[in-house]
């Protein structure tokens, strides 16, 4: 009764008849005979696919929600791996509620701007609540935005806003914060410049920075999805490295000496971000160049440094070092 009132208060617009789903939905204890069902949104994406794989490896039943007509190869691959594929209209709370029924946890690995991170995840959250799913993991997977001032990073502002909503919902929420995907250091992030044999940075070369590979983040998220005792935030870093640490890792990984290249104080990066933003046409690209620069700026300030780290929570996870990742670059 209390749960029903909470749901009605949280989602007044959600149809009363759907409340019935609450009575039917149960949180199933995980066992080999009766594995926990994890509903996964974004399973066709880079991180989501790896989360699906890690969940299946751990014996979970994975229900991957995909947009109707998705023909990505990942759809067939997920099916082959043993996931249940459910085509669902992400604009319909009713459809999402049916898709969430009986799950122990809903995991979102969606990527996008306001229409996805706020609007899409809100519908998914409403659905999870009405279906009686006990736990929700939002698509955060970033530096610690809770320590950053609002307005300092567009994509992280959306996460903060969604999580404020999540905190009001009658559901147990856990965010996974992992710093920067280490994989980005082999190309997308303009930090380790392989051609010039330089590590480029702004500000302080001794500022600790958090890096976790996409795969390690997925492994950890899968373990967290199956763990009913997770706290509100879990923070991990496959490696905490300073710019000097990155220099050593690049040198070790390539066998060639890397030097440091300090472009200037952090203020210079701030100006470059403003100029890049002004010069670029407005687009709905989730990661335009200035977004990556903004992310680096945030990291170099030290404000969103992850602490304390929960790396040891699932001892079976082996964390991949920056050097190992840099060594994979062709
Ligand atoms: N910390 C870091 O350095 C870092 C780096 C990259 C990403 N991330 C984060 O990791 C998370 C996942 O990112 P990713 O790189 O794996 O993303 P991705 O590869 O672009 O995948 C996005 C997923 O979201 C789905 N999706 C997008 N818009 C949707 C919509 N409107 N309705 C339903 N599904 C939709 C896509 O489905 P379709 O197959 O239908 O398109 C796909 O499954 C995000 O939170 C992202 O910000 C963190």
UniProtKB/TrEMBL annotation:
InterPro entries: NAD(P)-bd_dom_sf, NmrA-like, NmrA/Isoflavone_reductase-like. It comes from Hymenobacter jeongseonensis. This is NmrA family NAD(P)-binding protein. Pfam families: NmrA (PF05368). Keywords: NADP, Oxidoreductase. Residues 37-260 form the NmrA-like domain. It comes from the Bacteria.
């Amino acid at each position: 009764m209390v749960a029903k009132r909470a749901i009605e208060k949280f989602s007044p617009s959600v149809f009363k008849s759907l409340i019935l789903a609450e009575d039917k939905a149960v949180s199933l204890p995980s066992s080999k005979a009766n594995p926990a069902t994890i509903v996964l949104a974004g399973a066709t994406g880079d991180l989501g696919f790896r989360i699906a794989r890690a969940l299946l490896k751990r014996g979970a039943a994975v229900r991957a929600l995909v947009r109707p007509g998705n023909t990505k190869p990942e759809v067939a691959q997920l099916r082959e791996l043993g996931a249940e594929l459910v085509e669902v209209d992400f604009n319909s709370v009713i459809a999402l509620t049916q898709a969430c029924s009986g799950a122990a946890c809903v995991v979102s690995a969606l990527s996008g701007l306001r229409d996805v991170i706020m609007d899409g995840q809100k519908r998914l959250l409403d659905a999870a609540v009405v279906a009686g799913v006990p736990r929700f993991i939002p698509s955060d997977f970033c530096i610690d935005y809770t320590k950053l001032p609002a307005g300092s990073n567009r994509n992280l502002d959306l996460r903060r806003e969604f999580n404020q909503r999540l905190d009001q919902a009658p559901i147990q929420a856990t965010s996974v914060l992992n710093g920067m995907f280490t994989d980005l250091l082999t190309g997308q992030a303009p930090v380790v410049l392989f051609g010039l044999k330089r590590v480029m940075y702004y500000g302080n070369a001794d500022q600790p920075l958090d890096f976790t590979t996409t795969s390690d983040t997925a492994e950890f998220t899968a373990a967290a999805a199956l763990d009913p005792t997770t706290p509100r935030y879990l923070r991990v870093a496959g490696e905490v490295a300073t710019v000097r640490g990155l220099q050593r890792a690049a040198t070790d990984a390539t066998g060639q000496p890397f030097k440091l290249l300090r472009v200037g104080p952090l203020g210079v990066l701030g100006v470059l971000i403003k100029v890049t933003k002004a010069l670029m046409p407005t687009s709905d690209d989730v990661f335009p160049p200035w977004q990556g620069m903004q992310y680096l700026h945030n990291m170099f300030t030290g404000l969103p440094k992850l602490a304390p780290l929960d790396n040891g929570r699932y001892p079976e996870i082996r964390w991949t070092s920056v050097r190992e990742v840099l060594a994979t670059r062709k």
